[in-house]
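Q: What changes when magnesium ion is included in the input?
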Amino acid sequence: MKVMKFGGTSVGSAQRMKNVAQLIHDNNRNLVVLSAMSGTTNSLIEISDYYAKGNKESASAVVNILRNLYTKHIGELYATEQKKKEMSDFMETVFHEIMLLGAEPYTDNIGKAIVAKGEIMSTHMVTAYLEECGIKAQLLSAFDFMRTDQEGQPDMKYLHDALIPLIDSNPDAEIFITQGFICLNHEGHIDNLQRGGSDYTASLIGAAIRAEEIQIWTDIDGMHNNDPRFVDNTRPVPQLSFEEAAELAYFGAKILHPTCVLPAKFAGVPVKLLNTMEPQAKGTIINNQLSEENKIKAIAAKDNITAVKIVSSRMLLATGFLRKVFEIFETFHTSIDMVTTSEVGISMSIDNTDNLSKIAEELRKYGTVEIDRNMCIICVVGDLRMQNTGIESLVTDALKDIPIRMISYGGSEHNISFLIHEADKQKALQALSNKIF
Ligand code: ASP
Ligand code: MG
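A: The predicted holo structure follows.
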Protein backbone atom coordinates (compact mmCIF):
# COMPACT_ATOMS: atom_id res chain seq x y z
CA MET A 1 0.00 0.00 0.00
CA LYS A 2 1.30 3.43 -0.96
CA VAL A 3 0.34 6.80 0.43
CA MET A 4 -0.11 9.29 -2.39
CA LYS A 5 -0.55 12.96 -1.61
CA PHE A 6 -1.76 15.52 -4.13
CA GLY A 7 -1.45 19.22 -3.35
CA GLY A 8 -3.81 22.07 -4.15
CA THR A 9 -2.64 22.68 -7.73
CA SER A 10 -2.73 18.95 -8.49
CA VAL A 11 -6.47 18.96 -7.71
CA GLY A 12 -6.93 22.60 -8.80
CA SER A 13 -9.44 22.00 -11.60
CA ALA A 14 -11.86 19.34 -12.86
CA GLN A 15 -9.28 18.28 -15.47
CA ARG A 16 -6.56 18.04 -12.84
CA MET A 17 -8.82 15.86 -10.70
CA LYS A 18 -9.38 13.57 -13.68
CA ASN A 19 -5.61 13.28 -14.12
CA VAL A 20 -5.22 12.41 -10.44
CA ALA A 21 -7.84 9.66 -10.80
CA GLN A 22 -5.68 8.13 -13.56
CA LEU A 23 -2.57 8.18 -11.41
CA ILE A 24 -3.94 6.68 -8.22
CA HIS A 25 -5.62 3.58 -9.55
CA ASP A 26 -3.14 0.70 -9.68
CA ASN A 27 -4.72 -2.29 -7.87
CA ASN A 28 -2.60 -1.62 -4.85
CA ARG A 29 -5.29 -0.32 -2.46
CA ASN A 30 -3.46 2.97 -2.16
CA LEU A 31 -4.34 5.61 0.35
CA VAL A 32 -4.70 9.01 -1.27
CA VAL A 33 -4.32 12.23 0.72
CA LEU A 34 -5.74 15.37 -0.88
CA SER A 35 -5.33 19.08 -0.22
CA ALA A 36 -8.08 21.56 -0.85
CA MET A 37 -8.31 22.87 -4.43
CA SER A 38 -5.75 25.65 -4.81
CA GLY A 39 -7.01 28.99 -3.54
CA THR A 40 -9.81 27.46 -1.47
CA THR A 41 -8.02 27.45 1.88
CA ASN A 42 -7.14 31.11 1.39
CA SER A 43 -10.78 31.94 0.60
CA LEU A 44 -11.98 30.02 3.65
CA ILE A 45 -9.49 31.88 5.85
CA GLU A 46 -10.81 35.12 4.37
CA ILE A 47 -14.37 34.05 5.20
CA SER A 48 -13.52 33.20 8.79
CA ASP A 49 -11.58 36.48 9.15
CA TYR A 50 -14.68 38.39 8.06
CA TYR A 51 -16.80 36.47 10.56
CA ALA A 52 -14.22 37.19 13.26
CA LYS A 53 -14.63 40.91 12.51
CA GLY A 54 -18.42 40.64 12.48
CA ASN A 55 -18.57 41.43 8.76
CA LYS A 56 -21.12 38.83 7.60
CA GLU A 57 -21.83 40.62 4.35
CA SER A 58 -18.26 40.30 3.06
CA ALA A 59 -18.12 36.71 4.33
CA SER A 60 -21.24 35.90 2.29
CA ALA A 61 -19.73 37.54 -0.76
CA VAL A 62 -16.69 35.23 -0.59
CA VAL A 63 -18.95 32.22 0.04
CA ASN A 64 -20.79 33.13 -3.17
CA ILE A 65 -17.58 33.33 -5.14
CA LEU A 66 -16.69 29.83 -3.91
CA ARG A 67 -20.19 28.58 -4.66
CA ASN A 68 -19.94 29.74 -8.28
CA LEU A 69 -16.49 28.27 -8.65
CA TYR A 70 -17.52 24.87 -7.34
CA THR A 71 -20.67 24.87 -9.47
CA LYS A 72 -18.42 25.28 -12.49
CA HIS A 73 -16.04 22.50 -11.33
CA ILE A 74 -18.94 20.12 -10.79
CA GLY A 75 -20.34 20.85 -14.23
CA GLU A 76 -16.98 19.96 -15.75
CA LEU A 77 -16.06 16.99 -13.59
CA TYR A 78 -19.04 14.67 -13.75
CA ALA A 79 -20.61 13.06 -16.78
CA THR A 80 -24.01 12.11 -15.40
CA GLU A 81 -26.77 14.44 -14.30
CA GLN A 82 -27.26 12.26 -11.23
CA LYS A 83 -23.71 12.84 -9.97
CA LYS A 84 -23.90 16.52 -10.82
CA LYS A 85 -27.06 16.82 -8.75
CA GLU A 86 -25.68 14.73 -5.89
CA MET A 87 -22.52 16.83 -5.69
CA SER A 88 -24.31 20.18 -6.08
CA ASP A 89 -26.51 19.17 -3.16
CA PHE A 90 -23.44 18.18 -1.17
CA MET A 91 -21.73 21.53 -1.84
CA GLU A 92 -24.88 23.37 -0.89
CA THR A 93 -24.85 21.62 2.49
CA VAL A 94 -21.21 22.61 2.97
CA PHE A 95 -21.88 26.28 2.15
CA HIS A 96 -24.95 26.23 4.36
CA GLU A 97 -22.85 24.83 7.22
CA ILE A 98 -20.30 27.60 6.72
CA MET A 99 -23.07 30.21 6.98
CA LEU A 100 -24.45 28.52 10.10
CA LEU A 101 -20.99 28.56 11.68
CA GLY A 102 -20.75 32.25 10.80
CA ALA A 103 -24.03 32.93 12.56
CA GLU A 104 -22.59 31.76 15.89
CA PRO A 105 -20.40 34.00 18.06
CA TYR A 106 -16.93 33.71 16.56
CA THR A 107 -14.27 31.54 18.21
CA ASP A 108 -11.03 30.02 16.97
CA ASN A 109 -12.78 26.66 16.79
CA ILE A 110 -15.35 28.08 14.41
CA GLY A 111 -12.63 29.52 12.21
CA LYS A 112 -10.90 26.15 12.04
CA ALA A 113 -14.14 24.32 11.26
CA ILE A 114 -14.65 26.68 8.32
CA VAL A 115 -11.09 26.30 7.05
CA ALA A 116 -11.44 22.49 7.16
CA LYS A 117 -14.17 22.57 4.51
CA GLY A 118 -11.66 22.89 1.66
CA GLU A 119 -10.25 19.39 2.09
CA ILE A 120 -13.72 18.01 2.81
CA MET A 121 -14.95 19.34 -0.55
CA SER A 122 -11.98 18.17 -2.63
CA THR A 123 -12.01 14.65 -1.19
CA HIS A 124 -15.77 14.25 -1.74
CA MET A 125 -15.38 15.46 -5.31
CA VAL A 126 -12.62 13.03 -6.20
CA THR A 127 -14.31 10.10 -4.43
CA ALA A 128 -17.55 10.76 -6.30
CA TYR A 129 -15.63 11.01 -9.58
CA LEU A 130 -13.92 7.67 -8.98
CA GLU A 131 -17.31 6.12 -8.20
CA GLU A 132 -18.68 7.51 -11.43
CA CYS A 133 -15.74 5.85 -13.20
CA GLY A 134 -16.74 2.54 -11.63
CA ILE A 135 -13.86 2.42 -9.13
CA LYS A 136 -14.64 1.31 -5.59
CA ALA A 137 -13.28 4.28 -3.69
CA GLN A 138 -13.69 4.56 0.06
CA LEU A 139 -13.60 8.00 1.61
CA LEU A 140 -12.11 8.00 5.12
CA SER A 141 -12.72 11.05 7.28
CA ALA A 142 -9.47 12.38 8.74
CA PHE A 143 -11.48 13.28 11.84
CA ASP A 144 -11.80 9.54 12.57
CA PHE A 145 -8.06 8.97 12.99
CA MET A 146 -6.03 12.19 12.87
CA ARG A 147 -5.83 13.80 16.27
CA THR A 148 -3.41 16.03 18.12
CA ASP A 149 -2.47 15.65 21.79
CA GLN A 150 -2.35 18.26 24.55
CA GLU A 151 0.92 19.64 23.20
CA GLY A 152 -0.67 20.01 19.77
CA GLN A 153 1.46 17.19 18.38
CA PRO A 154 -0.03 14.42 16.22
CA ASP A 155 -1.06 11.42 18.30
CA MET A 156 0.74 8.62 16.47
CA LYS A 157 -0.60 5.78 18.57
CA TYR A 158 -4.17 6.92 18.10
CA LEU A 159 -3.59 7.33 14.39
CA HIS A 160 -2.24 3.82 14.07
CA ASP A 161 -4.91 2.22 16.27
CA ALA A 162 -7.79 4.02 14.56
CA LEU A 163 -6.70 3.90 10.93
CA ILE A 164 -5.68 0.24 10.56
CA PRO A 165 -9.16 -1.08 11.55
CA LEU A 166 -10.77 1.43 9.19
CA ILE A 167 -8.72 0.08 6.30
CA ASP A 168 -9.33 -3.53 7.34
CA SER A 169 -13.07 -3.05 7.65
CA ASN A 170 -13.26 -2.07 3.98
CA PRO A 171 -11.87 -5.16 2.24
CA ASP A 172 -13.68 -4.35 -1.01
CA ALA A 173 -12.28 -0.86 -1.37
CA GLU A 174 -9.93 -0.54 -4.31
CA ILE A 175 -8.69 2.80 -3.13
CA PHE A 176 -8.91 5.03 -0.05
CA ILE A 177 -9.25 8.81 -0.11
CA THR A 178 -8.74 11.09 2.86
CA GLN A 179 -8.17 14.74 3.73
CA GLY A 180 -4.75 16.19 4.33
CA PHE A 181 -4.17 19.03 6.79
CA ILE A 182 -7.27 18.64 8.97
CA CYS A 183 -7.61 16.84 12.30
CA LEU A 184 -9.27 17.02 15.69
CA ASN A 185 -7.49 18.39 18.73
CA HIS A 186 -7.33 16.66 22.13
CA GLU A 187 -10.65 18.22 23.11
CA GLY A 188 -12.33 16.85 20.00
CA HIS A 189 -12.59 20.20 18.21
CA ILE A 190 -11.74 20.59 14.56
CA ASP A 191 -8.16 21.71 14.09
CA ASN A 192 -5.40 21.53 11.48
CA LEU A 193 -1.72 20.78 11.09
CA GLN A 194 -0.85 24.34 9.97
CA ARG A 195 -0.65 25.74 6.46
CA GLY A 196 0.79 23.32 3.96
CA GLY A 197 0.09 20.51 6.42
CA SER A 198 -1.13 17.96 3.90
CA ASP A 199 2.42 16.74 3.31
CA TYR A 200 2.64 16.18 7.04
CA THR A 201 -0.62 14.19 7.00
CA ALA A 202 0.77 11.96 4.25
CA SER A 203 3.99 11.37 6.12
CA LEU A 204 2.19 10.62 9.41
CA ILE A 205 -0.14 8.16 7.72
CA GLY A 206 2.69 6.53 5.77
CA ALA A 207 4.61 6.03 9.01
CA ALA A 208 1.56 4.79 10.93
CA ILE A 209 0.64 2.11 8.41
CA ARG A 210 4.26 1.38 7.38
CA ALA A 211 3.40 2.14 3.78
CA GLU A 212 5.58 0.84 1.00
CA GLU A 213 6.31 4.47 0.12
CA ILE A 214 4.95 7.97 0.49
CA GLN A 215 4.49 9.83 -2.76
CA ILE A 216 4.18 13.60 -2.74
CA TRP A 217 2.77 14.71 -6.10
CA THR A 218 3.22 18.34 -7.14
CA ASP A 219 3.81 20.11 -10.42
CA ILE A 220 7.57 19.98 -10.54
CA ASP A 221 9.66 16.90 -11.26
CA GLY A 222 11.28 16.50 -7.85
CA MET A 223 13.51 18.59 -5.64
CA HIS A 224 15.83 20.62 -7.83
CA ASN A 225 19.52 21.22 -7.22
CA ASN A 226 18.86 24.96 -7.05
CA ASP A 227 15.84 27.25 -6.99
CA PRO A 228 14.32 27.10 -10.50
CA ARG A 229 12.58 30.44 -9.92
CA PHE A 230 15.91 32.23 -9.76
CA VAL A 231 18.47 30.07 -11.50
CA ASP A 232 18.59 28.69 -15.06
CA ASN A 233 19.26 25.06 -15.90
CA THR A 234 18.45 23.50 -12.57
CA ARG A 235 17.76 19.78 -12.56
CA PRO A 236 16.05 17.34 -10.23
CA VAL A 237 18.18 15.63 -7.60
CA PRO A 238 17.60 11.87 -7.96
CA GLN A 239 18.19 10.95 -4.31
CA LEU A 240 18.46 12.69 -0.96
CA SER A 241 18.89 11.41 2.57
CA PHE A 242 16.18 12.39 5.05
CA GLU A 243 18.62 14.81 6.71
CA GLU A 244 19.46 16.50 3.43
CA ALA A 245 15.81 16.74 2.47
CA ALA A 246 14.95 18.22 5.87
CA GLU A 247 17.61 20.94 5.50
CA LEU A 248 16.45 21.80 2.00
CA ALA A 249 12.77 21.82 2.92
CA TYR A 250 13.42 23.99 5.95
CA PHE A 251 15.75 26.35 4.13
CA GLY A 252 13.49 27.16 1.26
CA ALA A 253 12.82 24.33 -1.16
CA LYS A 254 9.08 24.91 -1.51
CA ILE A 255 8.22 21.50 -2.90
CA LEU A 256 8.15 19.68 0.43
CA HIS A 257 6.88 20.86 3.80
CA PRO A 258 9.69 20.52 6.39
CA THR A 259 7.47 18.69 8.91
CA CYS A 260 6.94 15.92 6.40
CA VAL A 261 10.41 14.45 6.74
CA LEU A 262 10.57 13.24 10.35
CA PRO A 263 7.72 10.70 10.59
CA ALA A 264 8.83 9.00 7.36
CA LYS A 265 12.45 8.95 8.48
CA PHE A 266 11.69 7.33 11.83
CA ALA A 267 9.47 4.73 10.22
CA GLY A 268 12.03 4.17 7.45
CA VAL A 269 9.43 4.76 4.74
CA PRO A 270 10.91 6.30 1.57
CA VAL A 271 9.38 9.52 0.27
CA LYS A 272 9.12 10.16 -3.45
CA LEU A 273 8.56 13.59 -4.94
CA LEU A 274 6.72 13.23 -8.24
CA ASN A 275 5.22 15.42 -10.93
CA THR A 276 1.54 15.15 -11.92
CA MET A 277 2.32 16.93 -15.21
CA GLU A 278 5.02 14.41 -16.05
CA PRO A 279 4.16 11.20 -14.19
CA GLN A 280 6.89 9.15 -15.91
CA ALA A 281 9.69 11.41 -14.64
CA LYS A 282 11.79 9.83 -11.89
CA GLY A 283 11.49 12.75 -9.48
CA THR A 284 13.40 12.63 -6.21
CA ILE A 285 13.57 9.77 -3.75
CA ILE A 286 14.29 10.49 -0.11
CA ASN A 287 15.52 7.53 1.93
CA ASN A 288 18.12 6.46 4.47
CA GLN A 289 20.89 5.86 1.98
CA LEU A 290 24.08 7.83 1.72
CA SER A 291 24.74 8.09 -1.98
CA GLU A 292 26.98 10.37 -4.00
CA GLU A 293 29.82 10.64 -1.52
CA ASN A 294 31.84 13.79 -1.38
CA LYS A 295 29.37 15.75 -3.52
CA ILE A 296 27.16 18.77 -3.16
CA LYS A 297 23.62 17.84 -4.08
CA ALA A 298 21.51 20.95 -3.82
CA ILE A 299 21.21 24.58 -2.83
CA ALA A 300 18.22 26.39 -1.37
CA ALA A 301 17.53 29.88 -0.07
CA LYS A 302 15.28 31.20 2.65
CA ASP A 303 14.19 34.85 2.62
CA ASN A 304 12.94 37.24 5.24
CA ILE A 305 15.67 36.49 7.70
CA THR A 306 16.77 38.89 10.41
CA ALA A 307 20.20 38.72 12.00
CA VAL A 308 20.57 39.64 15.66
CA LYS A 309 24.03 40.28 17.06
CA ILE A 310 24.94 40.81 20.68
CA VAL A 311 28.44 41.91 21.61
CA SER A 312 29.50 41.96 25.22
CA SER A 313 32.80 42.00 27.05
CA ARG A 314 30.93 40.18 29.80
CA MET A 315 30.98 37.14 27.58
CA LEU A 316 34.75 36.98 27.77
CA LEU A 317 35.72 34.00 29.94
CA ALA A 318 32.18 33.84 31.35
CA THR A 319 30.09 30.70 31.58
CA GLY A 320 26.37 30.58 30.99
CA PHE A 321 26.27 33.57 28.67
CA LEU A 322 24.94 31.59 25.72
CA ARG A 323 22.26 30.10 27.90
CA LYS A 324 21.08 33.54 29.02
CA VAL A 325 20.88 34.75 25.44
CA PHE A 326 19.06 31.68 24.16
CA GLU A 327 16.64 31.79 27.06
CA ILE A 328 15.51 35.23 25.97
CA PHE A 329 14.57 33.88 22.53
CA GLU A 330 12.85 30.94 24.17
CA THR A 331 10.81 33.19 26.46
CA PHE A 332 9.50 34.98 23.40
CA HIS A 333 8.81 31.78 21.44
CA THR A 334 11.26 32.65 18.73
CA SER A 335 13.35 29.91 17.23
CA ILE A 336 16.86 30.53 16.04
CA ASP A 337 18.04 29.15 12.68
CA MET A 338 21.74 29.97 12.44
CA VAL A 339 24.21 30.74 15.22
CA THR A 340 27.81 31.89 15.07
CA THR A 341 29.92 32.87 18.06
CA SER A 342 33.18 34.58 18.84
CA GLU A 343 34.72 35.18 22.23
CA VAL A 344 32.91 38.49 22.63
CA GLY A 345 29.79 38.16 20.56
CA ILE A 346 27.01 35.99 19.20
CA SER A 347 25.11 36.33 15.95
CA MET A 348 21.83 34.57 15.44
CA SER A 349 19.31 34.50 12.63
CA ILE A 350 15.55 34.36 13.08
CA ASP A 351 12.63 34.32 10.66
CA ASN A 352 9.87 35.30 13.05
CA THR A 353 10.20 38.92 14.13
CA ASP A 354 6.87 39.23 15.98
CA ASN A 355 8.67 39.65 19.31
CA LEU A 356 11.90 41.14 18.06
CA SER A 357 11.60 44.45 19.91
CA LYS A 358 11.00 42.67 23.22
CA ILE A 359 13.91 40.31 22.56
CA ALA A 360 16.21 43.21 21.70
CA GLU A 361 15.17 45.08 24.83
CA GLU A 362 16.07 42.07 27.01
CA LEU A 363 19.33 41.45 25.17
CA ARG A 364 20.41 45.06 25.73
CA LYS A 365 20.72 44.26 29.43
CA TYR A 366 23.69 42.07 28.54
CA GLY A 367 25.44 43.82 25.67
CA THR A 368 25.27 45.93 22.55
CA VAL A 369 22.64 44.73 20.11
CA GLU A 370 22.67 45.11 16.35
CA ILE A 371 19.89 44.04 14.00
CA ASP A 372 20.14 43.44 10.24
CA ARG A 373 16.93 42.92 8.32
CA ASN A 374 16.15 41.68 4.81
CA MET A 375 18.73 38.95 4.94
CA CYS A 376 18.62 35.54 3.33
CA ILE A 377 20.07 32.15 4.22
CA ILE A 378 21.78 30.24 1.44
CA CYS A 379 21.94 26.59 2.37
CA VAL A 380 24.29 24.21 0.54
CA VAL A 381 23.52 20.55 1.11
CA GLY A 382 25.49 17.40 0.41
CA ASP A 383 28.11 15.05 1.81
CA LEU A 384 30.10 17.54 3.88
CA ARG A 385 31.84 15.20 6.31
CA MET A 386 35.06 16.52 7.79
CA GLN A 387 37.34 14.21 5.79
CA ASN A 388 35.92 15.50 2.50
CA THR A 389 38.32 18.31 1.79
CA GLY A 390 37.92 21.10 -0.70
CA ILE A 391 34.15 21.43 -0.64
CA GLU A 392 34.06 24.42 1.72
CA SER A 393 36.64 26.29 -0.36
CA LEU A 394 34.71 25.54 -3.55
CA VAL A 395 31.59 27.04 -2.03
CA THR A 396 33.24 30.10 -0.52
CA ASP A 397 35.12 30.69 -3.75
CA ALA A 398 31.82 30.76 -5.64
CA LEU A 399 30.62 33.47 -3.25
CA LYS A 400 33.81 35.50 -3.33
CA ASP A 401 32.11 38.66 -4.67
CA ILE A 402 29.19 38.55 -2.29
CA PRO A 403 29.17 40.24 1.13
CA ILE A 404 28.63 37.55 3.75
CA ARG A 405 27.23 38.29 7.17
CA MET A 406 27.45 34.80 8.77
CA ILE A 407 28.76 31.34 7.87
CA SER A 408 27.65 28.19 9.64
CA TYR A 409 29.41 24.89 9.09
CA GLY A 410 29.82 21.79 11.21
CA GLY A 411 26.40 21.80 12.83
CA SER A 412 25.74 18.64 10.87
CA GLU A 413 27.67 16.69 8.28
CA HIS A 414 25.47 17.72 5.42
CA ASN A 415 25.17 21.45 5.21
CA ILE A 416 26.95 24.75 5.11
CA SER A 417 24.89 27.92 5.36
CA PHE A 418 25.57 31.55 4.56
CA LEU A 419 23.69 34.63 5.61
CA ILE A 420 23.71 37.34 2.96
CA HIS A 421 21.60 40.33 1.91
CA GLU A 422 18.35 39.34 0.24
CA ALA A 423 19.32 41.62 -2.63
CA ASP A 424 22.29 39.36 -3.41
CA LYS A 425 20.30 36.15 -3.37
CA GLN A 426 19.89 35.53 -7.08
CA LYS A 427 23.51 36.39 -7.77
CA ALA A 428 24.67 34.02 -5.03
CA LEU A 429 22.46 31.14 -6.17
CA GLN A 430 23.58 31.53 -9.77
CA ALA A 431 27.26 31.79 -8.79
CA LEU A 432 26.99 28.60 -6.75
CA SER A 433 25.23 26.77 -9.58
CA ASN A 434 27.89 27.89 -12.07
CA LYS A 435 30.72 26.74 -9.86
CA ILE A 436 29.30 23.50 -8.50
CA PHE A 437 26.96 21.90 -11.03
N1 ASP B 1 -5.00 23.30 2.17
C1 ASP B 1 -4.00 23.56 3.15
C2 ASP B 1 -3.23 24.81 2.81
O1 ASP B 1 -3.49 25.41 1.79
C3 ASP B 1 -3.09 22.40 3.38
C4 ASP B 1 -2.23 21.99 2.21
O2 ASP B 1 -2.53 22.30 1.06
O3 ASP B 1 -1.22 21.33 2.43
O4 ASP B 1 -2.39 25.21 3.56
MG1 MG C 1 1.28 22.25 -0.20
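Observations recorded in class: The domain at 2-218 is CATH 3.40.1160.10 (Carbamate kinase).
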